[in-house]
TrEMBL record:
Signal peptide: none annotated. InterPro entries: CysQ/Inositol_MonoPase (IPR050725), Inositol_monoP_metal-BS (IPR020583), Inositol_monophosphatase-like (IPR000760). Mg(2+) binds at residues 85, 112, 114-115, 235. PROSITE patterns: IMP_1. It comes from the Bacteria. This is 3'(2'),5-bisphosphonucleoside 3'(2')-phosphohydrolase. It comes from Actinoplanes xinjiangensis. It catalyses: adenosine 3',5'-bisphosphate + H2O = AMP + phosphate. The keyword Metal-binding applies. Residues 1-27 are annotated as: Disordered. One of its GO terms (biological process) is sulfate assimilation. It holds the Pfam family Inositol_P. Its cofactor is Mg(2+).
Length: 290
């Protein structure tokens, strides 16, 4: 695709923040509304830019979804801070002379405009998502995630904390052969996950996007999502908010809580699973973490 065609394809995508009507006042319903709107924009970008030049498609998708989220958050939640993968100022770690506003805010939207960027660029794949989470600090409760939405536009499905999905049923042994199914990155599974799976007699289920992997645990398509070796707060905040609202276990791989809106937004590891599986999985993780 020529530079000119790429540019006109991007301009043709409607990103007018005025579309979409008045959003819900409730933060969880607002998160759903926002993630769905960004998801619609991403579907349009995919249709208009096409898959011929994957790099251009990734860049157009990241930018269009980020612009939509930024515009709607400043329009409808102007007093709140934002931590976005695509926002240089908010995402940098705190250093001398550079203190992001979010560190002094008591409401911070933690967003990943396009999680599973690689899968978004591959024709026919539906394992990519938009993440919108709200982190809140106030005197009445410890700082925590108070809302979250994960839109999976190519699956026409959104999980959000306004109507948390039902807790996943115990898998039928006849369907799984009794093996634990661990969702893992399809392109860069951490090395220790293979050893962990062998130890547990588990099966790895490869797929893209952290949000989609946690959705797979919620849906009962996988029993756990285990990751270590690198990730950021925006990769997990929204799906973890939904998983916790659903009643699932979500923690660091050492069992400690996942903590958000930190000076450095790196959050390199996590485990999300059914509560009954957590003790066994955490014990096995102790044996296999690098
Ligand atoms: N080692 C690592 N370091 C940093 N980010 C990582 C990572 N492994 C996975 N991620 C991020 O986690 C998300 C899911 O990755 P995967 O599909 O491989 O499991 C991706 O987010 P983005 O698509 O938003 O970049 C990816 O960039
Ligand atoms: Mg991501």
């Amino acid at each position: 695709m020529s530079e000119q065609t790429k540019a006109s394809a991007r301009i043709a995508v409607p990103r007018d923040a005025g579309e979409g009507g008045t959003p819900p006042v409730n933060d969880s319903a607002f998160a759903r509304w926002l993630a769905d709107r960004a998801g619609q924009v991403l579907l349009q970008v995919r249709a208009e830019v096409g898959h011929e030049d994957g790099k251009a498609l990734k860049a157009a998708g990241d930018q269009a979804a980020h612009d939509l989220l930024r515009a709607e958050l400043s329009r409808w939640r102007p007093a709140d801070a934002v931590l976005s993968e695509e926002d240089e100022h908010s995402r940098v770690a705190w250093t001398e002379g550079n203190r992001p506003d979010r560190l002094d805010a008591n409401r911070v939207w933690i967003v990943d405009p396009l999680d599973g960027t690689r899968e978004f660029s591959e024709e026919g794949r539906d394992d990519w998502a938009v993440h919108v989470a709200l982190w809140t600090a106030d005197s009445s409760a410890p700082a925590r995630l108070t809302a979250g939405a994960v839109a999976m536009p190519a699956r026409h499905n959104t999980h959000a904390t306004d109507h948390p999905p039902a807790y996943p049923p115990m898998p039928l042994e006849s369907a799984t052969g009794g093996a634990i199914r661990i969702a893992a990155s399809r392109t860069r599974p951490p090395a220790f996950v293979t050893a962990l799976a062998e130890d547990l007699g588990a099966e790895l289920v490869p797929m893209g996007s952290a949000g989609v992997k946690i959705a797979a645990v919620i849906n009962g398509e996988a029993d756990a999502y285990v990751h270590a070796g690198g990730q950021f707060e925006w990769d997990s905040a929204a799906p973890v908010a939904v998983a916790l609202a659903t009643g699932l276990h979500a923690s660091r791989v050492d069992g400690s809580p996942l903590v958000y809106n930190q000076a450095d937004p790196k959050l390199p590891d996590l485990v999300v699973c059914r509560k009954d599986l957590a003790p066994r999985l955490l014990a096995a993780l102790q044996r296999h973490l690098p």
